[in-house]
Amino acid sequence: MPSFDVLSEVDAQEVRNAVDQASREIANRYDFKGTDSSVELGDDSITLRTSSEDKLRALRQVLEEKLVKRKVSLKALTYGDVEDASGANVRQVVTLAAGISSEKARELNKFIKGLGLKGVQSQAQGDELRVTSKKRDDLQAVMTALREGDFGIPISFGNRRD
């Protein structure tokens, strides 16, 4: 029976490259000179540090530009609160979303059922969603509808089977 998996993930290498490019641009830009601005990549988060909230907005914009150039969806980013750091600096942690939460899986299931395609079934499996059908054309219709929908998470497809 043909099937595919709906995934929500980002390419870690592309994120690393975007953070490196943003760090290089920040080091060279005149408006960031002497502000101790930095962009640091953690395991599943990015930390932005700078001297003021205005600079933080500019830092966020530089990071987003680099991520978009690398084709990393901005839907995968969740911005935390702006915190005061030591030395009159501010810090913000940006979390990278990975996997489909149970609420999003339910929302996607409901959306797929609402398409009204006969014989299409979907079920959550951990942090991904498996969609099966007897007809490959129905699966392609589901993929198209999911690409066009806005669910607040980056959606990709994998593990296609015939």
From TrEMBL:
HAMAP family xref list: UPF0234 (MF_00632)
CDD domains hit by this protein: YajQ_like
Function comment: Nucleotide-binding protein.
UniProt xrefs under Gene3D superfamilies: 3.30.70.860, YajQ-like, domain 2 (3.30.70.990)
Any single Gene Ontology cellular-component annotation: cytosol
Keywords of this entry: Nucleotide-binding
InterPro entries attached to this UniProt entry: UPF0234-like_C, UPF0234_N, YajQ-like_sf, YajQ/Smlt4090-like
Source organism of this protein record: Iamia majanohamensis
Residue ranges crossing the lipid bilayer per the database entry: none
Stored NCBIfam families: PRK05412.1 (NF003819)
Superkingdom per UniProt: Bacteria
UniProt xrefs under SUPFAM superfamilies: YajQ-like
Entry's family note: Belongs to the YajQ family.
Coiled coil: none
Protein's name in the database: Nucleotide-binding protein PO878_19610
Pfam (any one): YajQ
GO molecular function: nucleotide binding
